[in-house]
Specification:
This protein is an alpha/beta fold and about 350 residues long. It is built from ten helices and ten strands. It folds into two domains: about 220 residues, Rossmann fold; about 100 residues, Rossmann fold, CATH 3.40.50. Helix content is about 40%, strand content about 15%. The radius of gyration is 19 Å and the shape is globular.
Length: about 350
């Protein structure tokens, strides 16, 4: 493989836009879900992995036998493992107890070596200690390569060149807003950069959970959903005040996931539930003010970063909810949303 040649270009595939009709608080609205679970390993991180490894290869070729190490909550690890195995390279995934057991099994089956960091970092998760582990591994093994999804600008750039244009093309001129979950912030930053240049009237909304410091760098707290939120501020987000933000309650997001599955038979990951919950908040505001993300009407799109199959024993499990001490809270959230008229149905197309 000559230097500079793109790494597995075929991993960046188009994913479907599914239109749904949302009834909520006396109104209805058609929205769309960008179903990234249709990627090769089932998440938007297939795109991120391709971008990161392409940049790594351009800097120095990824020859067979190269060892790549990365901190991951799961999805990026699956995508990296797939690509690196095809290149004859090895992958070390630094994960934590929140990584679903099914994801850990899939990583092992994909040839990855796992290092599980189980010491909380005091910031509501394990991220800071995962990063310390990666740094120590690289210091002890100078030949190891670290893509560093948290600071490598190849992360947002791949979404500027693929995710953003796809959403704009699929939604067409009706597109009014895009809701994107934030963890590293790379997906949001990339999509927002594309929209700012090509579709400046489209509002880009960064969605995070309460208890996360990804957007503010401030205090942290409980975080139940893997793949969204972080114990430190994103390196990619623009300055505060230059983009729209929505913080959602993680239990309410899980409630939305369960209602979606009940109504449509569609199981989404928790971060996807967060984007839909953020949209519901704006739909409620639209009923009061007549505008949605600065523009009346139009088609809002929620980036559904992954599917729900790997979360069957967590987000969709009553036993897990009881173990987390949120069973009663989750039940109340579902009843409250249903009481506000929340229901999803299929919509063949916009409008």
């Amino acid at each position: 493989m000559p230097p500079g040649e793109p790494v597995v270009e075929e991993t960046i595939n188009g994913t479907a836009l599914r239109h749904v009709r949302i009834a909520f608080r006396g109104g209805t609205r058609v929205a769309a879900l960008k179903l990234e679970e249709q990627g090769p390993t089932g998440s938007v991180k297939d795109r991120t992995a391709a971008g990161l490894l392409r940049r790594l290869h351009q800097d120095r070729p990824l020859v067979p036998g190269t060892v790549v190490v990365e901190s991951t909550s799961g999805n990026l690890g699956l995508a990296l493992a797939r690509i690196l195995r095809s290149l004859g390279c090895s992958f070390v995934a630094v994960v934590d107890p929140k990584t679903p057991h099914s994801t850990r099994s899939a990583l092992l089956e994909g040839g990855a070596r796992l290092i599980v960091v189980d010491e909380p970092d005091g910031r509501g998760g394990y991220l800071l200690h995962r990063l310390d582990t990666v740094r120590r591994l690289c210091a002890r093994n100078p030949g190891h390569r670290w893509p560093n999804q948290y600071e490598n600008w190849a992360n947002p750039q791949i979404h500027t060149s693929t995710t953003g244009p796809e959403i704009a093309e699929q939604a067409g001129t009706a597109l009014s807003a895009v809701y994107v979950p934030v963890s590293t912030g790379g997906t949001f930053a990339g999509v927002a950069a594309y929209m700012a240049a090509a579709r400046p009237r489209v509002a880009c909304v960064a969605v995070d959970v309460t208890g996360s410091a990804a957007m503010t760098g401030g205090r942290t707290g409980r975080r139940l959903i893997p793949g969204i939120g972080a114990g430190r501020r994103s390196s990619f987000l623009p300055a505060a005040g230059t983009f729209r933000r929505r913080l959602v309650d993680d239990v309410e997001a899980i409630a939305v996931c369960r209602i979606l599955r009940a109504d449509l038979g569609l199981a989404l990951g928790g971060s996807s539930g967060c984007t839909v919950r953020a949209l519901l908040a704006d739909l409620a505001a639209e009923r009061a003010t007549g505008t949605l993300a600065g523009r009346p009407g139009g088609l809002p799109v929620c980036l559904a970063a992954d599917g729900g199959a790997k979360y069957a024993d967590t987000l969709y499990s009553d036993r897990w909810a009881a173990e987390q001490g949120i069973a009663a809270e989750l039940g109340r959230a579902i009843r409250l949303l249903r009481g506000q008229g929340l229901a999803f149905s299929n919509a063949p197309d916009y409008p």
